[in-house]
TrEMBL record:
Keyword Ion transport: yes
Protein name: Chloride channel protein
One GO cellular component, as annotated: chloride channel complex
SUPFAM superfamilies with a match to the protein in the record: CBS-domain pair, Clc chloride channel, TrkA C-terminal domain-like
Membrane topology: Multi-pass membrane protein
GO molecular function per UniProt: chloride channel activity; monoatomic cation transmembrane transporter activity
Domain annotation RCK C-terminal: ranges: 790-869
Organism expressing this protein natively: Enhygromyxa salina
Family annotation (Pfam families): TrkA_C, Voltage_CLC
Residues of the CBS domain: 719-776
Source species taxonomy: Bacteria, Pseudomonadati, Myxococcota, Polyangia, Nannocystales
Keywords: CBS domain, Chloride, Chloride channel, Ion channel, Ion transport, Membrane, Transmembrane, Transmembrane helix, Transport
Length: 869
């Protein structure tokens, strides 16, 4: 066929010509699987090939768009006007059948659509169309065939693969291509640069563990520097707000009331603008916990918005602290760094944890506390890997140390808590009853604060007529009134209160009032929409409670009681432990900050008891309750993988045997059983119904082909020398997983105490149970551009890993027989789901793009499986 090729890519196989499509006087022919497009008759002059080419036909189209098979279906088609009067992104709608003017054909290599125009809402064509003056228009048509896979990420970038993060359209759904804006192109180039740099560093290091530690150092330094920027921003805003008040001295106390309201309005405006341009941005430690449960994805803009909003809230008098946002921003830094260098999903989660540890370490100059907090709070429900392994725990330590050194380099030696020397008394054991009472009070007050914060948040949410950007201002106004009418110490984080408590300058009557009112002030600030954390308010409330209990101890015991600072420190640890439901974090943090070993015993008892009491009063922490309000309860309800499998028993999943061979069975019986059974493993029974031998049918078949088998031999003579691995009904499913891993068998016998056979347990049944009870609660599935996308891996022990993959274009349309995953890469398909429906694993059934497969194998084989086909 004569014609001018408009855009030609390498043809993979012999072209298959699709039915030609007529557009006016021109005919467009698409040849597959290449993206060669031929237009007849040829255009003059010839047009050079390009990635995207608009061919303008400035002639009137008198008939609807048709193909050689008949007229196009009636519907609404998107048509864009030619010329500069209308931007490229805008489209006008015309009904099929109406006289239209042909504009051109846009060729995109990365679309698998073959339609000439994108059909949207069907609409009947009018019986007759009025004659209208012809004008020049441009019709954008999406033609082409599925391209060959790019040989490099740079080639994939040049093809403009759509990504939701950049706002590109999915051409396979719309039929149109929206050009990337300049900023998105820069983002793509930046990501490509990071991936290449990461690959070069990994190749130079040639050690995955060392490379991970290098990334942890980078995350720690970056998190420490970001924490320094946040503190400098807060310091500047703290100076700016009083400066405004001094400029209007006549306002006096009125300014103290209005300052928190003004800061709240600014934060509300910031949140509204961020939501308008970036969508709903999760913030704070709850967002970090959610990200860890969903593959460690945190956007950098969320950290920037949180940092700006926290500075405005604190400077204007909001009752929040900067420590929580510092942790969240550190986690964001870890996520951004991990994605920039192209780390795998599990490593991204590790870097998020490293950022958390570095953030808290930078905030308090307490590296060990940062590590413990990350493990105890952020990774508490982590299901992507074992936190206790050195591959996860070591990067946390390295990042925390790097963050502390960076913070020290910026601000020098500093501490949020400075205790006045030795504070423990001579009768510490006698005072233990008061410390325990302090822990009980802290354990009761902490859930109260969580409930008040959520109650006030719900109250503001019910104010539908009140704009969202006004709500933080209203909450700030309430805080300002509390501060002016009752205690000005309620304004701001409350470090002055902690300082007074540690230096015995806080009387118990004021401390009692401050403890209760600080809960209300914090609830008004956070519940109305202010930005900040609850770390410092928790320490303030704990110090106040400790001061009150010290007054009671002094009244009962008289002289010789410990200093008020001792009770304040223990109270701070107890209240923070109750708030986090994490007793180790405050124990380590306060010990790091004070260095007073004399308080370690009451501190440990108080933190553990307060966390226990708070857990009995309210199961969920404030972070958990916040996530449930956001609809992210799946992150909290995933449970522990090992616990899920330890609660089940082998007897629950075993099935009775249909037919069992005996040691005396003939070779012919053995052959028939091998052909009937789905598993290559056959077990033999003796005369007492006990499992006595095992036969590998695949190995037996190989011996038959080599002529090594005596057909007169019995099954017992052909059995392997392997000692069968036996299970009992009371074995846990976790133990059965380990047994399967060690034996390498697809089915194991279940016996009683006398080794008599009761049933069989199949590996596929066990894995399906695990998938339904664990993996189905995780919806973070990553679709890659290759044959299949890998979800985060679940380590089953002994090198066996379970993965869920999303079928991509390479696998779509192919059967499991054609892929032969087990034969090529030793990977077993355990489950097949389509649109949330469980399908029977039919090796002859073609896969569809978007299907979800559960695969089992070692990690290297699973990675290699992506490139099969």
């Amino acid at each position: 066929m004569d014609g001018v090729p408009v855009s030609v890519s390498d043809a993979v196989t012999e072209p298959v010509e699709l039915p030609p499509v007529s557009v006016g006087s021109k005919t467009v022919v698409v040849r597959e699987p290449s993206t060669e497009v031929v237009i007849e008759p040829p255009l003059e002059p010839p047009i050079e090939p390009s990635l995207e080419l608009d061919i303008a036909f400035e002639e009137e189209l008198r008939s609807p768009i048709t193909s050689s098979d008949g007229p196009a279906a009636s519907g609404t088609y998107e048509v864009g006007a030619l010329g500069s009067a209308e931007p490229r992104g805008r489209r006008k709608r015309h009904s099929a059948g109406v006289h239209q003017s042909l504009a051109g054909v846009a060729v995109r290599q990365d679309t698998g659509a073959h339609e000439i125009v994108s059909e949207t809402t069907p609409a009947p064509a009018p019986a007759a169309a009025p004659r209208r003056t012809p004008r020049k228009t441009r019709t954008y048509a999406s033609v082409g065939a599925p391209p060959r896979e790019p040989t490099s990420s740079l080639e994939a970038l040049s093809q403009g693969r759509p990504r939701s993060a950049t706002g590109m359209w999915d051409t396979s759904k719309t039929g149109f291509y929206k050009p990337l804006p300049a900023t998105a192109r820069i983002v793509h180039l930046w990501e490509e640069l990071g991936l290449r740099v990461g690959q070069r560093i990994a190749e130079a290091v040639n050690d995955d563990h060392v490379y991970l530690l290098m990334m942890a150092v980078l995350v720690g330094v970056a998190s420490g520097a970001t924490a320094g920027v946040l503190l400098l921003w807060i310091a500047w805003t703290v100076e700016a707000f009083p400066a405004v008040g001094k400029a209007f001295p006549s306002f006096g106390w009125i300014y103290l009331v209005l300052a928190p309201a003004l800061g709240g309005l600014m934060v509300g405006g910031l949140r509204t603008v961020a939501r308008r341009y970036f969508g709903d941005i999760p913030e704070g430690i709850p967002a970090v916990i959610e990200a860890v449960g969903q593959q460690g994805q945190l956007e950098g803009r969320s950290g920037a918005v949180l940092g700006i909003g926290t500075g405005l809230t604190i400077a204007s008098g909001g009752s929040v602290g900067h420590e929580g946002p510092t942790v969240a921003i550190g986690a964001t830094v870890g996520s951004v760094v991990a994605r920039f260098f192209g780390l795998r999903m599990r490593r991204q989660t590790t870097m998020v944890g490293a950022g958390c540890a570095a953030g808290l370490a930078s905030a308090f100059n307490a590296p060990l506390a940062g590590v413990i907090f990350t493990v105890e709070v952020v990774f508490k429900r982590s299901v992507g890997g074992n936190v206790g392994t050195m591959s996860v725990f070591t990067p946390l330590i390295v990042a925390a140390v790097a963050g502390t050194f960076t913070s020290y380099a910026i601000f020098g030696e500093r501490s949020e808590l400075i205790a006045p020397g030795e504070v423990a008394g001579d009768h510490l054991l006698v005072e233990m009853i008061f410390f325990l009472a302090l822990a009980v009070v802290a354990g009761l007050l902490s859930p109260l604060m969580s409930r008040v914060i959520l109650w006030i948040g719900d109250l503001f949410e019910r104010m539908k007529r009140l704009p969202q950007w006004v709500r933080p201002g209203l909450g700030g106004l309430g805080v300002g009134i509390l501060g002016v009418v009752l205690f000005t110490q309620l304004l701001g984080p409350g470090r002055g209160i902690v300082f007074d408590a540690l230096n015995s300058e806080l009387v118990w009557q004021v401390a009692l009032g401050l403890a209760l009112l600080k809960i209300l002030a914090t609830a008004l600030t956070i519940g109305s929409g202010g930005m900040g954390g609850v770390f410092m308010p928790s320490l303030v409330i704990g110090a106040c409670v400790g001061t009150v209990v010290h007054a009671l101890a002094a009244l009962v015991l008289g002289d010789g009681v410990s200093q008020p600072a001792a009770y304040a420190l223990v109270g701070m640890g107890a209240y923070l432990g109750a708030t986090l439901r994490a007793p180790l974090t405050p124990i380590v943090m306060i010990f790091e900050l004070t260095g007073d070993y004399g308080l370690i015993l009451p501190l440990m008892f108080a933190c553990i008891l307060s966390a226990f009491v708070a857990g009995r009063v309210e199961k969920d922490t404030l972070f958990d309750l916040t996530l449930r309000r956001r609809g992210s309860s799946r992150v909290l309800d995933t449970g522990d993988d090992i616990g899920v499998m330890q609660r089940g028993h082998v007897g629950d999943l075993m099935v009775p045997p249909d037919h069992m061979l005996r040691m005396s069975s003939s070779f012919e019986e053995l052959q028939r059983a091998a052909l009937v059974e789905d598993t290559p493993t056959l077990y033999l029974l003796d005369d007492h119904e006990r499992v006595a031998g095992v036969i590998d049918s695949r190995a037996l078949a190989a011996r038959v082909l080599r002529g090594e088998i005596d057909h007169e031999a019995s099954a017992g003579e052909l059995a392997t020398n392997e000692r069968p691995t036996l299970l009992v009904p009371d074995d846990t499913l976790a133990g059965a997983m380990l047994a399967f891993s060690r034996s390498g068998r697809d089915v194991l016998p279940v016996v009683d105490a006398d080794r008599q056979l009761l049933g069989l347990l199949e590996r596929t049944v066990l894995m399906t149970h695990y998938s339904e009870h664990v993996l189905e609660q995780r919806d973070a599935e990553l679709a890659l551009h290759s044959g299949a996308g890998l979800d985060h891996e679940v380590n089953l022990g002994m090198g066996v890993t379970l993965e869920r993959v999303v079928v991509g274009r390479n696998w779509a349309g192919r059967t499991l027989i054609e892929l032969d995953l087990r034969g090529q890469v030793n990977v077993q398909v355990l489950e097949w789901r389509r649109d949330d429906q469980l399908l029977a694993i039919d090796p002859k059934q073609p896969l569809r793009e978007g299907d979800v497969l559960a695969l089992a194998g070692n990690r290297d084989d699973l990675l290699a499986a992506r490139w099969v086909g």
